[in-house]
Amino acid sequence: MLSMSSPSAPSGGSSETRFSLGDSSRRTAATRSRILSWALWDWGMQPFNTVILTFVFTALYLTTDAFLPAELQALDDDAPAKERALADLAGGLGAGTTIAGLLILLVAPLLGQRADARGRQKLWLGIGTVGTIGCMLGLWFAEPAPAYFWFAVALISAGTVLGEIAGVNNNALLTSIARPGDVGRLSGLGWGFGYLGGVTMLVLVAVFYVADWFGVPSDDGVPFRLVALGCAVWAIVFTLPVFLNVPEPAPQGRPERRAGILAGYRLLVRDVVGLYRTPATRSTFWFLLASAVYRDGLSGVFTFGAIIGAQVFGFDVLQLVAFGIAANLIAGVSTILAGRFDDRFGPKVLIVVALIVMVVAGLAVFALADRGQLVFWIGGLTLTACVGPAQSAGRSFLARITPSGREGEIFGLYATTGRAASWMSSLAWTVLVATTGATIFGVLGITAVLLIGLLLILPVRAPASSQARSPR
């Protein structure tokens, strides 16, 4: 159960990816440099999600028998005791990401809100970026022994939280470089750079593996620990320009957003309750709720899919990396094509169809797991083809039902509610894997979250016309 990596993209941006720095006749060299510097941050940080969290470090190293006691390592792979121990590792990673999701819920929305109000986006961007890089560097010390498993899980979980904090504030810097008519296109540029950065690092890992790690000894997990170091160095090189070239935005937002922490949470609750109580925006409230759930299901696919491929279907390094590259490419193409169906049939139809297909594909992967790797290839690539359209259509749906003049507020809540549910799929995965002792049952947890999101969005009123206001 696997899909494309999830590059961080500014909320409310375009679902299209256009690799252009703008009209050179109207932009100064300094402005183009700022745009490129801002987009390179996504390019630099994305390998944490793609290589470490999804396809390589966790799936092919952290949740393998390298972190089991020697007596369990000596058992056959199909021995019940070893299968249970490997499932416990997968569940342990799920517990760590669940805690990370809850921390993101508690801190990321409020920190973003206060950074906007006080004009300190670059400070928090720096804290989150440096912290995430520090976590990647720390993974070098995650030697293949049971004593280091929770150390690595803690670093990955902390990196997830810090990366989210950084992403919130990198999104906010878009106002420093974009004119009002450029926001969607430049948002798409950042999304595209993140997507390409992740794919590029996967290709480099594949080359590293095919070349037999260039002579690096494979003992003590050195190749995988070097991959983590490589991702950290990559992030250092490509995130530095945003701090050197992009100016800090002026303080923005309502003055009360500068209030204390408790007051900040009261304001967030007030905004959400206000949407529900106002008849004109009640559909927006229900959509925010539904999308928060199904988007977390999509996140669960990102986080745990590669572990299914490695533990359940026996994918090796090259197979899993090749699958990751194929998944990203298919996801990119399907997302671009989805825009045409969105305009023709409406975003709700696209979301519902995508979620139905994903639920069916998830159940098929679970039911047919004993049929071999072909099941994972077909089921995983089917999921890949649906994740991007569900994401882009969700943003399009919201843009079409958002009252004019409230775009910034509503898309801010879209980001906030997404973080509020960022623990659900991790918790469902952890509970089912821990209860059953089999990693494959985690697929049902993620599928259940997608199904709940589908049921929640069915009664939401669709936009009056598929040709309504464009999200771009």
Q: Can you walk through the features of this model?
A:
The chain is mainly alpha-helical. The chain has two domains: 26-245, MFS general substrate transporter like domains (Growth Hormone, Chain: A); 268-472, Up-down Bundle (Growth Hormone, Chain: A). The chain is 73% helix and 0% strand. The chain is globular, with a radius of gyration of 21 Å. The protein has helices at 29-55, 57-62, 70-73, 80-118, 121-138, 149-172, 174-177, 183-210, 222-245, 261-277, 282-312, 317-345, 347-367, 373-401, 407-420, 424-436, 442-457.
Short description:
The protein is an all-alpha fold. It has helices at residues 29-55, 57-62, 70-73, 80-118, 121-138, 149-172, 174-177, 183-210, 222-245, 261-277, 282-312, 317-345, 347-367, 373-401, 407-420, 424-436, 442-457.
Low-confidence stretches: 1-25, 465-472
- CATH C-level of the largest domain: Mainly Alpha
User: Helix/strand/pairing class, anyone?
Assistant: mainly alpha
Query: What is the N-to-C succession of helices and strands?
Result: HHHHHHHHHHHHHHHHH
If you consult CATH, what is the topology of the largest domain?
Growth Hormone, Chain: A
Strand content range: under 5%
Q: What average pLDDT do the residues reach?
A: 82
Number of E-type strands: 0
- Percentage of helical residues? over 70%
The backbone outline, from C-alpha atoms, is: globular
CATH architecture of the largest domain: Up-down Bundle
Please give the count of helices.
17
What is the name of the CATH superfamily of the largest domain? MFS general substrate transporter like domains
Main sheet attributes: strand count, strand direction, barrel closure: none
Distance between the termini: 31 Å
Question: Over all CA atoms, what is the radius of gyration?
Answer: 21 Å
How many discrete domains? 2
